[in-house]
# Entry
Amino acid sequence: MAEENFKRRCGRWGEERAAQLLERKGLKILHRNWRHGHGEIDLVAQDGELTVFVEVRVRRSRALVSGFQSLTKKKRETLGRTALAFLEKFPATTFYRWDVVEFRLVDPQFRRYEALHYENVPLLEDGENNLSSLSL
# Structure
């Protein structure tokens, strides 16, 4: 139970910090926790003409796998299907990219951390972000 509460706190904390980080970089946050079916996109932002889908990962600094590397094939496909639903709901969105914001916690009280922002990451196995291979 305590670990589950810690994970929820991490998620909320990370999403708030990621939004602040992206806003400082000039992006506009459009949606937080955009959901479709079983999928959720942590943040949807705008960077000029681009819609930016953002996955936020928070890990302890001693974790064996980074937050970026922890995105499994199943998670990536779920994110892709959720983005596809977003694009269908908001058809004016034509150009998009995927970013990952990762926080590595140095201490569990969130006082010290390292923030990493990976821009335009390949979401799908083929190294592309072409969602046409997915179906809702």
